[in-house]
C-alpha cells in the first residue's frame, strides 16, 4: 500500500467514525480540516524543497471533502462549520472537480443558513480568479452542437459553477438580490461565452422576481435523461414538424443526477462529449415498438426496476415479469424459461384476470419455447377509465401453452401436442408503477412552483406501525417517490417528522407530497399533495387511504 492509499484509508476510517458517533462531528470535522491544511502546506514545501514529502493529491483531498460533506448531510447543526471549512479550501484548490462540487453545495445549502451573505465573497472570488470551467461549470455539460444551448441553464448538474451558485443565493434571499444582480452584471463582461450566457440568463430570470421562474430555471433543473434528450432533439430536427418539441416525450433520468458520483480522476479542462449508451428504458422502448400489437401506445413512461418472479427458481418453468407503464396502457413482459429437456412449448401466453377496473386487451404469445432457451410473451392492458384513481390492482396469472414432447438427445419434436396450463403467483400493480422518482434540490421552491390550485390534504392513522423510521421507509417504498432534502433520515429521539417526496406521474405531471408524521401510541400521518393536475393528487390520497 502506497503512502497516498494509506492516507485515504485513514480518512475512510474517520468517515466511519462520524457515522458511528454523530455527536462527535465538531472534533472530527476540525481534524479533517487540519488534514487538508497540512496537506496543502506539505505540497507547498515539497514544491520548494524536498520531493520526499508525502502528497495526497486528488484522491486524498477528494476523500476528505467527501467525508466533510457526509458530516454536513448527516448533522444539520454542523452545516455552517463544514461550509466555512470548504470555503477556505476552495481558496487554494487546484482541482476543478472538487471546486465545482463545493460550489454546487454552497449554492444548495448556503442560502438556508443563518448568515448566507458570508459565503458570497468566496463564491465571487472563484468568478474572478478561476478558469472558465469553474466559473461556468462547463466541465459537466453533456450536450454539444445546437442542442447545448437548450440545456445550458435548465439541466441540474452536480458540478455547478460559481455563476450558478450566485444565482441560487439571489433566487432564495430577497435582501441579497440587489447585490447578486450587481455581481451577475459584472459576469456579463466575462471573456468566456458560457459565463456570459449564464449570467445574462440568470439576470433575466431574477429580474422577474417570480418564485415559479426561480424554481424552474435556477433552483430545480430538468429531470430528464440527458442521452434521451439528445436523441429526441436529433430526431426532431431530422423530421420537421409544425408542432413544438414536447419535453414530456423525453424519458426521465433513472438516477437523479445530483446523486451520481463525481469522476475519480481530476479534470482541469472541458471534456469532449462521449458517445453514450442507450439506457435500459430506451432499450425497452425499442423492443416494445418492434412488436406490431404494441405499436401506437405512445412514449414509455416507466419500466419496473427489477423483474418480479412469478415462480420459484427451481420449478419446471421460470417466469419473471417486467411492468411497462404507458400514458393509457400497461404492458406486462413475461420472460419465460422452460427447464424440461423433454418438452418444447409453443404459443405461450400468460392469461391475466384483474381484480379492479383494468381491461385486458390482447396477448402476444411466445411462439416457441425450447429447452433452456428464454422466450418472451406480452399482455396488453388498458388503464382504468371509469375510476381513474383505482390504479392499485392484483392480477391472477395463468400460463397457457401447447406442449410437444421431444427427444432430449436429438431435440426432435413430436408433430402432435396437447394444451396445458400452469398457475403463477399473483402480480401486484401499485401506485409506484405510475410514478417516476425525481430529485428536487429545493423542495420549497418546487412546492411554490406547482401552486395550490389542486392541493388536497387528508389525515391517516398507521395502526400497525410503531416507529417513525418504519413509517418513512414504508411510505417511500409504497409511493415510489424520491425523498427530498434528506427527509428520509429521522433524527434521534424525535416523535414528529416531516417527509418530503417528489415524483412525476404518468403523462409528465409533477407530483409533490408533504407528509407530517406524529408518533404517540401509533403513527398519525397528515398527507398534503400538490400537482399541476387533479388526478395525480386524487390517486395519491386514494392509494394511501
UniProtKB/TrEMBL annotation:
Keywords: Cytoplasm, Cytoplasmic vesicle, ER-Golgi transport, Golgi apparatus, Membrane, Protein transport, Repeat, Transport. GO terms for cellular component: COPI vesicle coat; endoplasmic reticulum; endoplasmic reticulum-Golgi intermediate compartment; Golgi membrane. The keyword Cell inner membrane does not apply. Residues 432-544 form the Coatomer subunit gamma C-terminal domain. Residues 283-430 form the Coatomer gamma subunit appendage Ig-like subdomain domain. GO terms for molecular function: structural molecule activity. It is a peripheral membrane protein. The keyword Repeat applies. One of its GO terms (biological process) is organelle transport along microtubule. It comes from the Eukaryota. It is found in: Cytoplasmic vesicle, COPI-coated vesicle membrane; Golgi apparatus membrane. This is Coatomer subunit gamma-1. It comes from Eschrichtius robustus.
Amino acid at each position: 500500500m502506497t503512502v497516498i492509499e494509506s492516507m485515504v484509508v485513514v480518512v475512510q476510517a474517520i468517515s466511519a467514525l462520524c457515522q458511528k458517533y454523530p455527536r462527535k462531528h465538531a472534533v472530527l470535522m476540525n481534524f479533517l480540516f487540519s488534514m487538508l491544511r497540512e496537506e496543502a502546506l506539505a505540497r507547498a514545501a515539497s514544491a520548494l524543497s524536498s520531493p520526499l514529502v508525502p502528497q495526497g493529491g486528488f484522491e486524498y483531498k477528494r476523500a476528505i471533502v467527501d467525508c466533510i460533506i457526509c458530516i454536513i448531510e448527516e448533522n444539520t447543526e454542523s452545516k455552517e462549520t463544514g461550509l466555512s471549512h470548504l470555503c477556505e479550501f476552495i481558496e487554494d484548490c487546484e482541482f476543478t472537480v472538487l471546486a465545482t462540487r463545493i460550489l454546487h453545495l454552497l449554492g444548495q445549502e448556503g442560502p438556508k443558513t443563518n448568515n448566507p451573505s458570508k459565503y458570497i465573497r468566496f463564491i465571487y472570488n472563484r468568478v474572478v480568479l478561476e478558469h472558465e470551467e469553474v466559473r461556468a461549470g462547463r466541465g459537466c455539460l453533456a450536450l454539444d452542437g445546437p442542442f447545448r444551448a437548450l440545456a445550458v441553464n435548465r439541466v441540474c448538474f452536480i458540478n455547478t459553477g460559481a455563476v450558478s451558485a450566485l444565482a441560487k443565493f439571489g433566487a432564495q434571499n430577497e435582501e441579497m438580490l440587489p447585490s447578486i444582480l450587481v455581481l451577475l452584471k459584472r459576469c456579463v463582461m466575462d471573456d468566456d461565452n458560457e459565463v456570459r450566457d449564464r449570467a445574462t440568463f440568470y439576470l433575466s430570470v431574477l429580474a422577474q422576481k417570480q418564485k415559479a421562474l426561480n424554481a424552474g430555471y435556477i433552483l430545480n433543473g430538468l429531470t430528464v435523461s440527458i442521452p434521451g434528450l439528445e436523441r429526441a432533439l436529433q430526431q426532431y430536427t431530422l423530421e420537421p414538424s409544425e408542432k413544438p418539441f414536447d419535453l414530456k416525450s423525453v424519458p426521465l433520468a433513472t438516477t437523479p443526477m445530483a446523486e451520481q458520483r463525481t469522476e475519480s480522476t481530476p479534470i482541469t479542462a472541458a471534456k469532449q462529449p462521449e458517445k453514450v449508451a442507450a439506457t435500459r428504458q430506451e432499450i425497452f422502448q425499442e423492443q416494445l415498438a418492434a412488436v406490431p400489437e404494441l405499436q401506437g401506445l405512445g412514449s414509455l413512461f416507466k419500466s419496473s426496476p427489477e423483474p418480479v418472479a412469478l415462480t420459484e427458481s427451481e420449478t419446471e418453468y421460470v417466469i419473471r415479469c417486467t411492468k411497462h407503464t404507458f400514458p393509457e396502457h400497461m404492458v406486462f413482459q413475461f420472460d419465460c424459461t422452460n427447464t424440461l429437456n423433454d418438452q418444447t412449448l409453443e404459443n405461450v401466453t400468460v392469461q391475466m384476470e384483474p381484480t379492479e377496473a383494468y381491461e385486458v386487451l390482447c396477448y402476444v404469445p411466445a411462439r416457441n419455447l425450447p429447452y433452456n432457451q428464454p422466450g418472451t410473451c406480452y399482455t396488453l392492458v388498458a388503464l382504468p377509465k371509469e375510476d381513474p384513481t383505482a390504479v392499485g390492482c392484483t392480477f391472477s396469472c395463468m400460463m397457457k401453452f401447447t406442449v410437444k414432447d421431444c427427444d432430449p438427445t436429438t431435440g426432435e419434436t413430436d408433430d402432435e401436442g396437447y394444451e396445458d396450463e400452469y398457475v403463477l403467483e399473483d402480480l401486484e400493480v401499485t401506485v409506484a408503477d405510475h410514478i417516476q422518482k425525481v430529485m428536487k434540490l429545493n423542495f420549497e421552491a418546487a412546492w411554490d412552483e406547482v401552486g395550490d390550485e389542486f392541493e388536497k390534504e387528508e389525515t391517516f392513522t398507521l395502526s400497525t406501525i410503531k416507529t417513525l423510521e418504519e413509517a418513512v421507509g414504508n411510505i417511500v417504498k409504497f409511493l415510489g417517490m424520491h425523498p427530498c432534502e434528506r427527509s428520509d433520515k429521522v433524527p434521534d429521539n424525535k416523535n414528529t417528522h416531516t417527509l418530503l417526496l417528489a415524483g412525476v406521474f404518468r403523462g409528465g405531471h409533477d407530483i409533490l407530497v408533504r407528509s407530517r408524521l406524529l408518533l404517540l401510541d401509533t403513527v398519525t400521518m397528515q398527507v398534503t399533495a400538490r400537482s399541476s393536475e387533479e388526478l395525480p393528487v386524487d390517486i395519491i390520497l386514494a392509494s394511501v387511504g
